[in-house]
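step: validate -> pass
step: tokenize input -> pass
step: predict -> running
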Amino acid sequence: MIEPIKKQRGLTFVIATYNASWLIEETLKHLMKMHIVPQLSWEVLLIDNNSTDDTIERAKQIWQSDAELRIIREEQQGTGYAKFRGMQEAKYEYIGVVDQDNWVDEDWMLKAVEYLDIAPRAACVFGKGTPVFESTPPEWFERYQQNFAVGSQHQTNGGVNDEDCFFYAAGSILRKKAFDQLKSFGFKPILHSRAGSNLLSGEDTELQILLRLIGWELYYEEDLQFKHYMPAQRLTRQYFKKFRRGLGATSVYLNIYRNYRKQRRNLRYEHYGTWQSLMWKSIRRALGDPLAIAASFLPHYTANYRVAKFWSHEGEFMERLRIGSELQKTQESLYKWLDTITSSSIAKNS
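step: predict -> pass
step: emit ->
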């Protein structure tokens, strides 16, 4: 394993962007309004994920700050690829994870840097997003708001001991050293999120699982806040259905990690099974609630938990059907790598 290079003290904001000409101005203006930590260097790293509009030109016109605005193009489509590239290219010790529709509060930098400074084993500090709606939100939004990276994420502040608790990463701050350590083990994400019509959304959870496995901690601070702009097209029934299916597809991969963690903690041994047996389990889950299936065709039941659960099970089944036996290969390869990084981390920390 190659030891991570110590980074210069400072803060890099990583913003993955795709065709956000209509969004990027407000996002950058909020960064320019922030209260700055005295003597702290910072930059904004805009990762252009193949935009076909004038996002980059507008960003250059808008940006007026002593901090540098850097532009990098990532040709692999998907926000996960773009974020991963940005984390690799970040110049400074701390990384602010800001989406193209996130508006950080004026005190975000002051609080984020302070929270990481006083918690040396924290890989990430997560905060709270508040929605800003373009149009009247649908009735189901509040119930499922965390799916959209808004709302309170934990009951208490500080270190989070529950290893089954994960966070949306929008508006968070990440320690570059922790990411670099994971990268030095050969980390390549299997979840890359939102490429074209694909709404996989688990790259944040994947990273959190792995950071914990190599000995880092996760923190939550309620007052580390940002606003999350919600355009009308993301609040439609059709988008919500598609999003829930994406969550189900994501679970196919996250369940490999979850099963591995269960076995490591010796809670119980659970054979992950062949891809065929998992496919049949997925079919039974998808077809297990006929009333929910029927209700899923009726707009009145969009907020119903059983309907939302059915869409997730449907997405899981479709993803298993799509990848077939490749899942077995992914699991075997991932388990070998996880055994390597956990044993290396234990040896290093002992």
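step: describe -> The two ends are 16 Å apart (CA to CA).
step: cleanup -> pass
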